[in-house]
Amino acid sequence: MTHVKSFRNGHGFTLVELMITLVIASVIVAAVYAAYKSQRDTFEAQDQVTEIQQNLRNAMWNMTRTIRMAGYDPEGTGQYKITWQEGGTAVTKADSFRFDADMQKNGGAPAAGGSPTEKLYFALYKPGGVAADYPFSLQGTPGGSALAEYIDAIEFYYTYSAPPGAVPSTNPGSQFNAEHIKAVTISILGRARLADSNFTNNMAYVPASGNAAWFPAKNDHYRRQLLTTTVYIRNQGLQP
To answer: Please, what is the average pLDDT of the chain?
Structure first.
């Protein structure tokens, strides 16, 4: 006699059970991916902010220690000072700062060249000279080595020791005023190297002058940081 074994009562998964298992697994995988993506996005955002801060602090540290020496003239030659104009063009103004310092302590004429020699000039380098060309780099002299990359804007805001009642401004306006600058407040706006499609920056940053139009909102996907520091000139003007 032939015996036929029946599997009718054997254990297994029904189609409904399999579908429920797939749904639960999909929910778990989606939750794990969402957590991973959230952590990754947070890490990338923090990494961008850290990069911007390091970039700005390095630039500010270099400018601060150099600007303090503006007008340094240990030999009393009168040749080392903050320069308002050069070649008929204003060089000490809202977005650039030009000065001499006798770093070599030899009393001779200021040596040619840029930082760290004796003719120093901080300004943004704009490729092609067009404001629409981003990113800018902050340089100690046009065409020289960059102190910082990915800088959107900079402002120099000057405080004077004379004439009496002189109010701070972004434009010295004359050689007389430039020679009486006692402090400069520097505002630097830096941005991230890469854009973040999940982030939209519509902030308008306000520099020391209070002119919100100076650092307008760009409505793009780059994170930005604003750093402001006041530097007191040791060799001219009045100390705070």
So the answer is: 82
